[in-house]
Amino acid sequence: MDYFPIFLSVKQRKVTVIGGGEVACRKVDLLRKADASITVVSPKLHNHLAALVNNGHIDWKNKSYEKSDLEGAYQVWATTDIPSLNHQVHKDATDLGIWINVVDDKEYCDFITPSMIDRSPIQVAVSSGGASPVLVRYLREKLETQLPHNLSLLAGYAGEQRERIKETYSTVNERRKFWELFFRHPAVEQAKTKEELECVFVELLQSKHAPQAALYLIETGTDTEMLTLKALRLMQQAEFVLYPGKVGTLKGADDAFVDLCRRDADREPYSEESLKAQVQQLLDEGLRVCVLAPKPEAANSLQPLIKAFNGLYIPSL
Fold first, then answer.
1. What is the DSSP pairing of strand 14-18 with strand 122-126?
2. pLDDT digits (tens, 9 = 90+) for 8-37
3. Quick one: which of 7, 96, 137, 218 has the fewest CB in 10 Å?
4. pLDDT higher at 65 or 303
């Protein structure tokens, strides 16, 4: 990774923006959405920023930049059209240990801003590390069409039920499986009000779906793009991933197929000799287990595993 992805809280923290032009307007608007305490330093001010100052939304230092303007700042943005000034701001911020972004000058940035989809409290960020902004814009447009319009409603409602769900399900795995059933419910996908979500929530809660162990044997092939949609969905549901490799090593852990599995799933290598015992133990614990296997193995030697545990075999395309 060229950049470590992170969502940073700037709520009520002092953020200093050097420059008062059009570029500063865009950054100030973004920072205001995150409830930052913003100070703009510039001898001139764009009309949009002037209106924000007059309404008390941001502070303005009507002056040329000095290093002392950075004192107490949590984060700094250099937005002027004078590269030498921006680079001086970068040097001063670095000396003071303050995160600095020099707009459109990647080499002088401690952090960069991704392309964002905001369905607060859900946020999706996409970045190419500055390599291809047009491609990132295309990806964002694709994602926008895939994300449900009621995402904010779902996230807000689910957040309000955290304590309530704990009264019925004591373990993280039980609660996770409940929410997976909830979010995949047809009525939830179409819901427009909290009342509609409440009906589904109560229905599922009263039915008390017991956690179900399951085994999925995913045939990996040689190309991740040959995985079926069903395979990808099951890989994201499994709480434990077994991948081919020598037991006791991390061989295969960085495999592209493993990386497509659920991020918080436990993972472990297997050998043909150890696999049956590993699967038996995990199923006894009530877990959903995903076994990744290359084509010849999955189609031949591991097929008896599916019959023994009544599992699902998902071939690649």
1. unpaired
2. 999 999 999 999 999 999 999 999 999 999
3. 7
4. 65
Structure tokens at 198: 């409440």
115: which strand partners? 126
The answer to whether 252 and 245 have CB atoms below 8 angstroms apart is yes
Q: Structure tokens of 216?
A: 């999925």
Q: In angstroms, how far is the first alpha carbon of the chain from the final one?
A: 29
Q: Are 191 and 282 in contact (CB under 8 A)?
A: no
Query: Could you tell me the pTM of the whole model?
Result: 0.69
DSSP, collapsed to helix, strand or coil, labels residue 267 as strand
Residues contacting 276, CB < 8 A, separation 6+: 305, 308
Q: Tens digit of pLDDT for each residue in 164-216? A: 999 988 888 888 889 988 988 888 988 999 999 999 999 998 886 655 788 99
Stretch 134-139: mean pLDDT, rounded?
90
